[in-house]
Amino acid sequence: MSLALNFDWLTNIMAILFVVACLYDTRYDEYGVLTLAAATMSLIVMAMELFLRPAFEMAL
């Protein structure tokens, strides 16, 4: 499986971004906007992985 079809690296980056956003929000951001944005991006990546991976596997 090539890097383009492998979502593991993207999921790991989103997890790291979420942790960094949480740490930043606890210190500086009053409303938690960065945490919500990082969580939304993580959910989008997980949805892409869930729905697009079978299509990629069927195409191969």
TrEMBL record:
Keywords: Membrane, Transmembrane, Transmembrane helix. The chain crosses the membrane at residues 6-24, 31-52. It comes from the Bacteria. This is Citrate transporter-like domain-containing protein. It comes from Paraburkholderia sprentiae WSM5005.
